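User: We ran a pulldown and think these components assemble together. Before we commit to crystallization trials, I'd like a predicted model of the whole complex to look at. Sequences follow.
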Amino acid sequence: MGAKRPDRRNFLKGSAAVAGGLTLGAVEPVLGQTTTPSGGFIKGNEELVLYGERSQHVTSVRMAHPPAGRPSPDAYGKYFHIAAPLQDSVGTITPSSLHFVGTTRGAFIPDIDPQEHRLMIHGMVDRPLTFTMEDLKRLPSETRPHFIECAGNRSRPQYKTVQETHGMTSCAEWTGVPLSLLLKEAGIKDSAPWIVCEGEEEVKGASSIPMAKAMDDCLVAYGMNGEAVRPQNGFPLRLLVPGFEGIFNTKYLRRIKVVDRYYMTYNDYGHLNRRGDEAGAALGMLIGPKSVITFPSGGQQLPDRGFYEVSGLAWSGGGAISRVEVSTDGGRRWADAEIRGGAHPMSHARFSYQWTWDGQETELLSRSTDDTGQVQPTRAQIAEFFGERADDESFRVRGMDNSIQPWRIASDGSVHNAIT
Amino acid sequence: MRSLKLLAVFMFLGSTAVAQSPTYGVGSTPSAEQIRAWDISISPTGEELPPGRGTSQEGELVYRRQCASCHGVDGEGAGAPRLVKRDAEPNVDPWDYGRILPIRSPYATGVWDYINRGMPVNREGTLTADQVYALTAYLLYLNDVISEDEVLDAQNLPKIEMPNRDNFADLPDWKRGMQRLPDYPF
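Assistant: Here's a predicted model for the assembly, 606 residues in total across the polymer chains.
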């Protein structure tokens, strides 16, 4: 009770300030200001006091992925894949309610009581340990923005919008305990080269992660965008494996086993490549530098010629984005875009480019470079590297697809996917 | 210079000492029984396999009762993923049998592990060890990996030579800041 008194005092001070402001406004109304908003007022209710919601006029929503593929939810209430509405995104953070969702085989979301949840670390360690959520929150934490991207995030000619072509990536601010700290607490035996991480969902999905990565920058996250991780994204605990294919980022994390070899679990070998395709295997483990213009993007409509700020997202599994270039003439000339809001390792970065459309048909493209020097390729560049042809029907970008996305602006201002 | 070297030596000793003892002392020690109860990861060596045994004939009975309604009577033709390899030309690469759990898995222990951890849907964890051995035997028999009357147990399961055992591309050794693929600029 005592703790509430200062709050009340602040509240009263705050109200006085607001009241003062209103009084001023009433004395000197701004020219042309109407006193009633267009739709009237939103009446307060208990629910909205406790947990706010967005305007009824904001209708941006996720969609099942792939389009016309397996439904989410299905007849039993299971989720498969759900894509984020990147066409409406601003800034770098995906709101938790709009964050993409991926599952390994279609899954119910487990309803986990955090009081009951435990994380066990065992195997080749000096001291097996079990942590409650309370234990984990006592330990030193880190907060970092990271994207997670599904291996299936692959643009296809028949996809129309950026939600369809690129919506299986999202970026949140994650808070949690560095995995290296927990592994050091348990004391890893010198010869242990791998860990197997397992979730609490019905299938107990398990992924193998190399020890070098586990000790580098993985995060055992309980926080997402300033609140608890959402159930669809692994409540109460999710492992972040920055830059690695989505499936490694184990949700509902309950167990980490330190092991002497690569276990090649169901999650692992289902995504591995055939002997001889070592390039595909390597390119599937990490996502390369990637970017996409979100405005204007497929399905949107430019109302008129004139000025537009072209805007998009760039990210890489190799590090931070160091440069983004935009072409407004189909790739003949490129100019540097500005990176807004900073570029962090394995995080979405927002880029902007000022453009005046002359009303002629053209193509908009973006390409990113990361701080390891890798550059986002066109489909033609990838094909050429492997001695293939991008216009072959059988051509497929190996591993995680980080190819450049072209958007065609028609002379009527409509925007279309220009992948052929 | 000399003091810097000494400092480096102390820092090295310091970090070794940290690695050997817990820094925060938070968390509790699970008992051996708790670890056994939770540890459902099965290594390619099979070292975690529980005692038990099963044959394909026994597995077929379990399969009909608990699996066939989703996976089809003979491992195909129903809504859930098919469990029997696709027809392929004789002597082709077994990879071409498709991404089907009991034939793509590099280890028979992996088939056991997945049935045990993930099946049947909505009743995960209810199969006995014998039933999991039997179902593993049945699926491996359906896919021509073992004979109909072979008895599987913790000793011989890890020794089964799966058709795709050496058919997987190696992953690169991950290092911070590495190129995804040597000489690949993208």
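Chain B touches chain A through 58 residues (CB under 8 Å). That may be worth checking against your pulldown data before setting up trials.

User: Thanks, that helps.
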